[in-house]
Amino acid sequence: MPPDKEFVRTVIKYDGSKAGLRRGLLAVRSGLTSDDVAEAGAALARRALELPELAEAGTVAAYVSVGREPGTRALLEALRRRGVRVLLPVLLEDNDLDWAAYEGPDRLVRAGRGLLEPDGPRLGPEAVTAADAVLLPGLAVDDRGMRLGRGGGSYDRVLARLERAGATPSRVVLLYDSEVIPEVPAEPHDGPVDAVVTPSGLRRFSPPPRPFP
């Protein structure tokens, strides 16, 4: 089973910086087994589909989990089977993200940095602005909804692009239970997510949206 919060607090040597918190959380994830990841991924899919933002969405921007990240494969397939249009990121040379449609696990190809990407046509970085919900990778979220990312900046660009376009999809982060923590270091440009989904449940940081038309 993934570690509980008490174990995480014991292991993480946190110096007050984002980098220090990232190192500690990644060290905890490195101790997870393949069974831990698979079990958490199945539970995450069930919990995530309880969110109206996903259950009623026409288009969801998501990502393919790799390594010890909370698993998204089961969720991607569940959304696709429901007829949801799922967009997956394609990493560009400057760390920005293009997007392509998810058409099943057999249409994913190996890319740089150990990532998996769709092999279909690229839709352009602006494609994400059409999503009803955006699933965000992360390492932690705090009681305010502030997300700690991996530090590459790709999703900061995505969120800034959504803001410039006036797009307001629901922003949802997928994590292990132990990664919902009291406080994440935040900078002026950081903003909260709308909800976090973990294997044991979900938590909102903003009111649920009105039903999609």
What does this structure look like?
This protein has 213 residues and is an alpha/beta fold. Helices cover 28% and strands 20% of the residues. The chain contains six helices and eleven strands. It has a seven-stranded mixed sheet with strand order 3-2-1-6-9-10-11. Strand 4 and strand 5 form a beta hairpin. The chain is globular. The termini are far apart. The model has no long low-confidence stretch (mean pLDDT 89).
Write the layout of secondary structure elements.
Elements: H1 5-11, H2 18-30, H3 34-48, H4 52-55, E1 59-61, H5 73-81, E2 85-91, E3 97-101, E4 108-110, E5 116-118, E6 133-136, E7 140-141, E8 147-148, H6 154-165, E9 170-174, E10 195-198, E11 201-204
Parallel strand pairs: 1-2, 1-6, 6-9, 9-10
Antiparallel strand pairs: 2-3, 4-5, 7-8, 10-11
| Structural class by helix and strand composition | alpha/beta
| Distance N to C terminus | 40 Å
Low-confidence spans: pLDDT under 50, at least 5 residues?
A: none
- What's the shape? globular
Biggest β-sheet description: 7 strands, mixed
> Could you give the order of strands across the largest sheet?
3-2-1-6-9-10-11
- Kindly state the mean pLDDT as a whole number? 89
Helix content, binned percent: 25-40%
Give me the number of helical elements: 6
Tally the beta strands.
Answer: 11
| N to C succession of SSEs | HHHHEHEEEEEEEHEEE
Strand content: 15-25%
What is the CA-atom radius of gyration, in angstroms? 16 Å
